[in-house]
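anyone seen this seq b4? input:
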Amino acid sequence: HLYQGNPFIIETMNAYGTGRGISFRIGPASFFQTNSAQAGVLYKTAADFAGFSGDDAVYDLYSGIGSIANYIAGAVRKVTGIESVPSAVEDARENAALNGITNAVFFAGEAEKILTPEFIADQGNPDIVITDPPRAGMHEKVVRSLLSVLPKKIVYISCNPATQARDIALMNDHYLVEKCQPVDMFPHTQHVENIALLSKKNP
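predicted toks r here
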């Protein structure tokens, strides 16, 4: 229940590759990294891993309020975000508009249901996929969808390295883990956020 003030908070950071400030509107039901200072480190590391060329089509899976999608939008051709919480998708679209971002689109629904061959044909095959699923990891159907299009790179961000390792093992025939970087998002706890770069193996 909102008693007074705005029904959201605002977080800011510097957008990737542009150096300009970017703002995020966060509603009460929407996800944003709880450690705002380390969120910038997390997102920059993930973007560095991706190694954007400037002409990339990127899928941002489990995109929340579009924090990663809007953060990288200035460094890529197009970003397609998928998020299961409708209010978060509304925030993502609002955040894109708030920052004058026109090359990011967002879809509400579960990734395993949205990532159909028809959707991919409509949005275009991704060159790079960034995925940041909940602790349960990616749905097996999402993994199968990724293996059906074989993007050049997958940047997998995870707050549960155990399910991350499980999902990566499912893609082992086609992808090589080039590097990993843990980020301490949760100081003084046993939890860690881990970023893994998966590159498509040569045929």
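The first strand starts at residue 9 and ends at 14. The helical segments are 36-50, 67-72, 86-98, 111-114, 117-123, 140-149, 161-170. kinda curious what u guys think
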